[in-house]
Amino acid sequence: MGTLESITSRPLLLLIAGVKGAIGSTMVLASHIMRRQPEMITPYLTTTALWSDGGAVAPVHVAGWDVSQQSMSQTLILHRVVPESLWRKDRDRLDEMPLAPAPKAGLSVSAQVDQLLEDIDAFRKTWPDAQPVMINLLPACSECGLATGDAIEKMDGGRFPDLAYARAAIAAGIPVVNFTPNDLGDPALVTLAAEKGLPLVGRDGKTGQTYFKVVLASALKARQLRVDGWYSLNILGNADGRNLMDPDCARGKLANKTELLDDVLGYRVGEAYGESAHKVHIDYYPPRGDAKEAWDVIDIKGLFGLPMSIRVNLQGRDSILAAPMALDLARWVLLLQAVGRGGAVPELGFFFKKPEGETPATTYEDQLRALKKLEAFCREKLAT
Ligand SMILES: NC(=O)c1ccc[n+]([C@@H]2O[C@H](COP(=O)([O-])OP(=O)(O)OC[C@H]3O[C@@H](n4cnc5c(N)ncnc54)[C@H](O)[C@@H]3O)[C@@H](O)[C@H]2O)c1
User: What is the spatial distance between Cα 27 and Cα 60, in angstroms, rounded to a whole number?
Assistant: First the structure.
């Protein structure tokens, strides 16, 4: 099993599906900058104390796949997440990264898995000492989902590309982080991951508006202030925002963003009106790029049922919020793999809008408590 230090001192190898996306390219950059200026990265990770127990921070290598043919520097310019002044000196190294083309959409899932396994093998040979983690950062998809009786192996891989990446990772003995809203929806895969002691965690990173929604809703619940209605609006101008204008692609994301409020509060918001009074809207607004803005109007009731109201305005940056969380999750799944905890891990609900697994904690304090307990469990296992 090894000690905590034997895990935290080894390099990480992030294998990213969608490595040239806004989050993927931000993670690439963070891994490069971490080597020369760790102070620009490590203070913004929640796993820093856990991972620094062993001393120096181990390097993070990134490899992965994308359908985009653009170089990494062109990709960084396109996404407008990080100013060029921060990465100009890394340009050559960024453009020389060993990335692989995504498997062709027309191939069956099983043919896609075979290609991905070859790529994984090559990436492992490049960094033989590193501990690999698969991170799914593919776009929210419209046709994802499995129907009863679907023969997954023969299915057209392009219909649900996430499946091949997750299957290849589990076949290669690699844990998986599903940061997307896409439901991998394959219980057999989760069971296999559990049997092999490989965490397969997700889904839908809880990065900005929804994170603060859980915090606020938990605080209102603790004070017995009744939520009468909650209106949430987001504008964003990145590729994810453009993709979410397709109602089919947005369906899963909107459901994940909406359902969790009732779960935190323990009652249906809007039950007095006979319909949900929790509304969530996402609007693609190109001028903003990755600089997402979110508004929340929260109507609450206090003593005598008298109404009050709260306004929240978050001026965030989508990928700047998401990239460190994905890196934290990579560290978490390595730790869990080391202690033999495979399959879904509901204790990681702190990180996700729709935590997979049975009875995940819903309120902010319960999610933090679950995370601390998980850390204590891992530490204890690794100390014995
Ligand atoms: N940014 C956030 O705060 C946040 C929060 C929760 C979830 N998410 C989810 O994370 C995911 C990634 O977000 P993003 O902003 O980086 O999206 P993005 O659209 O910028 O990146 C997706 C990348 O995947 C690539 N891609 C498409 N099909 C592929 C395939 N078959 N194989 C390999 N690569 C392929 C695209 O070319 C693109 O580079 C999305 O599903 C998004 O909904 C993001």
Answer: 10
Q: How far is the CA of 87 from the centre of ligand 1 (A)?
A: 21
Report how far residue 64's alpha carbon sits from residue 31's, in angstroms, rounded to the nearest whole number.
13
Report which protein residue has its CA nearest ligand 1's atom 22: 21
Q: Which of 27, 29, 99, 137 to mutate to test the pocket of ligand 1 (most atoms within 8 A of CB)?
A: 137
CA-nearest of 329, 322, 326 to 50 is 329
Would the CB of 240 count as within 6 Å of ligand 1?
Answer: yes
Report the half-sphere exposure of 305 (CA within 13 A, side-chain side): 1
Site of tokens 């190109």: 286
Domains of the chain and CATH, by start: 4-205+319-383 (3.40.50.720), 209-315 (3.30.360.10)
| Residue whose C-alpha is closest to residue 320's, from 10, 33, 14 | 33
**Hey, what amino acid is at 27?**
M
pLDDT over 70 (residue 176): yes
List pLDDT tens digits, range 222-249.
999 999 999 999 999 988 888 888 888 7
Which of the listed residues 138, 163, 206, 257 should we mutate to test ligand 1's pocket, taking the one with most ligand atoms within 8 A of CB? 138
CA 363 to centroid of ligand 1, rounded, Å: 27
Could you tell me the two tokens for 83? 């100013």
For residue 26, give the ligand 1 atom closest to its CA. 16
Element (H, E) at 17: strand 12-17
* Distance from residue 136's CA to the centre of ligand 1 (Å): 8
pLDDT at position 186 is 82
